[in-house]
Design brief:
Helices cover 73% and strands 1% of the residues. It is mostly helical.
Length: 485
């Protein structure tokens, strides 16, 4: 059941209506039942894979609260991490790990052949596993008290707008939201509905239309020439509109029900550096990786060196570079069980380490050529450079293998493709419209003016926007890209 399906439209209409008709004390029960039904709709077996680790982490967190022994707390943490990650490791990475190991063994011996295990794909496992792990670590470090109410904790993990592809909200803040008394607020519901429509526009008008061209050039790059350049640019916007569109819809749906979910995207392609890009792209994952991977690894690296410098490099630099490189490599692997994702993450790690290492020379260069006095030009060049570095890295994210990625690069030329000029022109105009609207809608004055509009004018605007979506939407159903992660 996806947000763009007719089944979900009926499902949410029922959930929305019943939710506000019920008294507050019963709403969590109904939302939990609706969330579990939502997840079981595709495959009821997935429900057990969600509930078993959720119950295990809940019980272990309660045991952590009562435990005072360092040894027993570490044992409980290890057990909880195993429980929280078990479904993710088995159902997402078992075949990948086995195949990689046998490929390594085949370098030294013969007769090793990989037979994939018959493991079903579990949708949303990466997202709810990270919720469980962050909650467990927060309790272990005593940054929050364990949630005593099993129902609210399960609802936090299984909350249907976030279940399949995030955002990965933190437990303390979101459980507090779930327990808060939400009234039927027309202003909030209207704002949430507008956010849902904006996300729907991104998905079915922009992302799905770009996919028609992108899928064609990636599936057969031979003879495409310049189309391959446009294909890579279009994919950068396809994945952004697909994933941020889902996030907008998830946040908007939560908002309509009376719950605040964290912002997950903040116009990342307007970033002036790679580090800023990761502060604005998939923010819930970026902050998760920062808090639970990068900072512990960086601090552990600094503690191990125990000197001000090592090989002439400051210890703080070692901490940053080691931490960010390992974090991005593992972040790439989180996105998919394939070496191309590891390569994509590694490339971003190289970008960030290189940016950190060259920050002082670049600052001196900007000052020497007088670029600091031309701030709009400087900012524009930084945005363009960052966007192109990110777009190049998307090639390895999209390609099915490194061979396919390098084949794609090798087929690029300045010669026009045999066909597709009409698609390129239409998609380019559509992207210009989209970028203009995104800048407009994010302008504080525009948001303020929309809020001050009379109810009838806002209703007309929403109706016109729905008509625009129906006219421009692609007549096919594509799942959201991040469902596979």
């Amino acid at each position: 059941m996806t947000f763009t399906s007719q089944v979900f439209l009926l499902f949410f209409a029922v959930v929305f209506t019943v939710h506000f008709l019920l008294p507050h004390r019963l709403r969590w029960v109904f939302l939990l039942a609706a969330s579990l039904y939502f997840y079981a709709y595709r495959d009821p077996w997935n429900l057990a894979l969600l509930l078993v680790p959720t119950l295990a982490v809940y019980l272990i967190a309660r045991a952590l609260e009562a435990s005072v022994s360092v040894r027993s707390r570490r044992l409980l943490l290890a057990t909880g991490l195993t429980a929280g990650l078990s479904v993710l490791l088995i159902f997402k990475y078992a075949n990948f790990a086995t195949k990689s190991f046998l490929s390594l063994v085949s370098l030294f011996t013969t007769g090793t052949e990989f037979t994939p295990l018959k493991i079903a794909y579990v949708v949303g496992v990466s997202f709810y596993s990270f919720k469980l792990i962050s909650y467990l670590l927060e309790v272990y470090h005593r940054r929050m008290q364990p949630e005593r109410h099993l129902g609210y904790f399960t609802l936090y993990v299984a909350f249907f707008p976030q279940l399949l592809a995030g955002p990965i909200d933190r437990a303390a803040a979101f459980i507090r939201e779930l327990k808060s008394r939400s009234s039927f607020d027309l202003e909030r519901i209207s704002a949430g509905f507008q956010q849902v429509l904006w996300g729907l526009f991104k998905k079915v008008v922009i992302a799905d239309r770009l996919a028609l061209f992108v899928n064609e050039v990636f599936s057969e790059p031979d003879g495409q020439g310049l189309n391959l350049v446009f294909g890579l640019y279009f994919y950068a916007f396809q994945i952004y509109c697909d994933f941020s569109g889902y996030s907008d819809m998830a946040v908007g749906i939560s908002r309509m029900l009376g719950y605040r979910s964290m912002l997950n995207f903040n116009r990342p392609y307007f970033s002036r550096s790679l580090s800023e890009f990761w502060n604005r792209w998939h923010i819930s994952l970026s902050t998760w990786l920062r808090d639970y991977l990068f900072l512990p690894i960086a601090y552990a690296t600094v503690r191990r060196i125990r000197k001000d410098r090592f090989l002439g490099i400051k210890v703080e630099a070692w901490g940053y570079c080691v931490g960010i490189f390992i974090t991005m490599l593992l972040g790439g692997l989180w996105h998919g069980a394939a070496w191309t994702f590891v390569g994509w993450g590694t490339l971003h790690g190289i970008y960030l380490v290189a940016g950190y290492a060259t920050r002082k020379p670049r600052r001196r260069l900007r000052k020497a050529i007088g670029l600091n006095r031309l701030q709009p030009l400087r900012d524009g060049l930084q945005v363009v450079t960052t966007f192109h570095l990110v777009t190049f890295a998307w090639l390895f994210f999209r390609a099915e293998s490194f061979t396919a990625a390098f084949r794609y690069l090798g087929r690029i030329s300045l010669l026009p493709g045999e066909s597709g000029a009409g698609h390129i022109l239409f998609n380019s105009v559509l992207l210009l419209l989209f970028l203009s609207l995104e800048i407009l809608f994010n302008a504080p004055k525009c948001a303020s003016r929309i809020r001050r509009m009379p109810a009838w004018a806002r209703a007309v605007m929403i109706a016109a926007w729905i008509c625009l979506i129906l006219i421009l939407a692609v007549d096919q159903s594509n799942e959201f890209i991040y469902f596979q992660f």
